[in-house]
Specification:
Rossmann fold, single chain, six-stranded parallel β-sheet, 3 domains
Length: 438
């Protein structure tokens, strides 16, 4: 089977590589010539554990190749996946210009039945616009080439994307025709050998599922952050509360961990887009509006705790930050809590030292070389620090040497934004420890 995937960002490259791993012939298309040239040399532009090796293996096997022109490959493929970006517009709605540009090229150049599948996260109603764009292009050509559109939202977690794709808990496909359903069933059959997990829906429902899923997870996070903040005021322990409610099978244990806010490429963007979609239909999403507000406020919690500890005066204080990425196992800093924290610390006159196992280059790209002090390892960041703030729970931060920290820090102050440390143990070793929800 031959397919094309337009867009070599996170979703497109992971999807294309995993399809190729299963024996499908894949061509990944991107208009960025420099990126394509690097991919052909085996240089992967994103960090995802295991992806480099898988790309190299499938390129060498001839199952995965790269192009800068969709027009050149349309005649040889049966399916085209659109995995281009849908960045938030100024009003928070999803920008569909790249999605519709793919549809335009598709309609201008297909010569046989081809299925166009939207894998990007798009608002409900996008498939209709895509179909109208293709039909208009065909009408201008004066031809009647058969085609179908489908929706196949992705559910990949950064840091575990390959596993998520290769052994999915579900594959959602929205279709309008039996032919499209047959094609998608055949395409995903290698991934279903351990059990059928395909969910076929109408297209609007498939488009809504992705937004609803991410918004539900974001809601759980903001809910627990609200509960954690209240626990501090009333003297409760949020970890005990989390265990107590997570034991209820109707609630479950996942995504009940309080912290310093969610970030990344999906949750913030998708919550905003769903709110905006509802507004366009005259319906206010009051719960999601609150979710967004709570999350933005939560990103300031570590700064507030630090200010309280130092009597609202951080001028000249040296603050170490462990973790810059929005979550472990990625270099993604989009909407990361660390960005809000760094900005507030600098405004308060603090000297900021940072370390992240993967996201240092991304931080330099975003903030510049002089915005903060970049350190070579976690302990260098702590040298002469008046406080250490844990922002991203990378494994290597979980059991630090307290003896080294006590010896090198100016003041033994730790503020834990992910609740990974044992308060009693740190306090027994002479540290001032603050976390979230206790």
């Amino acid at each position: 089977m031959n397919i094309a995937i337009v867009g070599t960002g996170y979703v497109g490259l992971v999807s294309g590589t995993c399809f190729a791993e299963m024996g499908i012939n894949v061509v990944c298309v991107d208009i960025d010539r420099e990126k394509v040239a690097k991919l052909r040399e085996g240089i992967v532009p994103i960090y995802e554990p295991g992806l480099d090796e898988m790309v190299k293996r499938n390129v060498e096997a001839g199952r995965l190749r790269f192009s800068t022109d969709l027009r050149e490959v349309l005649d040889e493929v049966e399916v085209v996946f659109s995995a281009v970006g849908t960045p938030p517009d100024e009003d928070g709605s999803a920008d569909l210009q790249y999605v519709l540009a793919v549809a335009q090229t598709f309609g201008e150049h297909i010569n046989k039945y081809t299925l166009l599948v939207t894998k990007s996260t798009v608002p409900v109603g996008t498939a209709r616009k895509v179909k109208e764009t293709i039909r208009a292009a065909l009408d201008r050509r004066g031809v009647d080439v058969p085609f179908d559109v489908a929706s196949n939202p992705e559910f990949l977690k950064e840091g575990a994307a390959i596993k998520d794709f290769m052994t999915p808990d579900r594959v959602v496909v929205g279709t309008e025709s039996d032919e499209a359903r047959k094609v998608m069933t055949r395409l995903y059959k290698p991934f279903m050998l351990s059990g059928e997990r395909m969910i076929f829906t109408d297209i609007p429902s498939a488009e809504m599922i992705k937004y609803a899923a991410n918004s539900m997870l974001a809601t759980r996070i903001s809910f627990m952050n609200d509960i954690a903040n209240l626990c501090e005021l009333v003297g409760a322990d949020v970890n005990m509360v989390r265990k107590g409610i997570g034991a209820d099978t109707r609630i479950g244990k996942k995504f009940l961990y309080p912290g310093c806010g969610y970030g990344g490429s999906c949750f913030p963007k998708d919550v905003k887009a769903l709110i905006k979609t509802a507004e366009k239909h005259g319906y206010p999403m009051r719960v999601l509006q609150a979710v967004e507000q709570v999350n933005e406020r939560q990103k300031e919690v570590l700064f507030d705790k630090l200010m309280k500890h130092f009597g609202n005066d951080l001028k000249g204080k040296v603050v170490a930050i462990w973790g810059l990425a929005f979550k472990p196992e990625t270099d993604d800093m989009r909407e990361a809590p660390s960005l809000v924290l760094i900005e507030k610390l600098k405004r308060a006159g603090a000297v900021v030292k940072v370390y992240d196992p993967i996201a240092m280059d991304e931080c330099r790209r975003r903030l510049g070389n002089d915005a903060v002090l970049y350190c070579n390892d976690m302990y260098e960041a702590a040298v002469d620090a008046d406080a250490l703030l844990l922002v991203t729970e990378w494994n290597q931060f979980r059991m630090p040497s307290l003896a080294v920290l006590k010896k090198t820090m100016a003041q033994p102050v730790i503020i834990d934004g992910r609740n990974i440390y044992d308060r009693d143990y740190l306090e027994e070793n002479g540290f001032s420890y603050t976390c979230i929800g206790k």
